[in-house]
Amino acid sequence: MTETKPTLLVVDDTPENIDVLVGILKAEYHIKVALNGPTALKIVQQSPPDLILLDIMMPEMDGLEVCRRLKSQPLTSPIPVIFVTALGEVADEAAGLAVGAVDYLTKPVNAAIVRARVKTHLALYNQAQHLENLVRSRTKELEQARLHVVQCLGRAAEYKDNETGLHVIRMSHYAERLARAAGLPEHFCQVLLHAAPMHDIGKIGIPDNILKKEARLDNQEWDVMRTHPDLGAKILGDLETELMQMATTIALTHHERWDGEGYPQGLKGEDIPIEGRIVAIADVFDALTSRRPYKEAWTIDDTLAQMASERGQQFDPHLVDLFLTLEPEIRTIAERYQDRR
Prior knowledge:
Low-confidence stretches: none
Structural class: alpha/beta
Number of helices: 15
Shape: elongated
Oligomer: single chain
């Protein structure tokens, strides 16, 4: 298989100057050309080259401005730019390097120097790209490992509370869909999807005789059960990552109520963080539609009707209304991640 040649973009308003550079470099590289700055920018946006050889003195838009615009955009800022110009003063070279060029050659050019500089900067660019890709790959691996640990933490609490641990999967998807329906940013929705499974991590600290009791809890047992949000926040700690901060907030606030009658802090209305209000709806919906040692599963229709009756009391009314519109998606998630008997 033939190795693809690197692509260079030569930009100069004088065709003769372009011909000189093309003649020097065409044997080793695929060459594109532009006679002015706007055309060069259009070419770069459509198909970024590996390196740009750029004149400074051009009408309409000079090379310095072209370079500034290239360096201001994430897609084009990494592309190495070598100025090739008749401006030979030290101040001119300093100005070129100041706007982001990697090198500065003066006309008339020396063929050997042009080839050497292009080869060197392409090698440095390729090395930088390789290192960036390596860092990105390792970062992705770390993200995946972290998310796996997060999911395991969530399931650890659920396996203590029910048979399958699928509750945390279902409710996290319900929460993510609701966040999207509420118009929250994509990044927030993704973090919520991964933070929500840890909402009940504090149940690890609740004795089994209370957590798995098949009869109703008495007042003393309820007092113990209501400590699990605080326990969850303590377990998750004060880590500064966005994911863990959201998980801590959710663990602490998902049993707060819109009317202020929830626990542990008795927060009311919009004083409850939005992630806590969303997870409260997702958690209760899945709890009601799932079988527990002390009850049979409710139907989805009955559960949605019950939650609608609690809008403005237990739940944020606007979020409940949005949740009701998601019934088809909710049913799909419930079926996809149903408990295995």
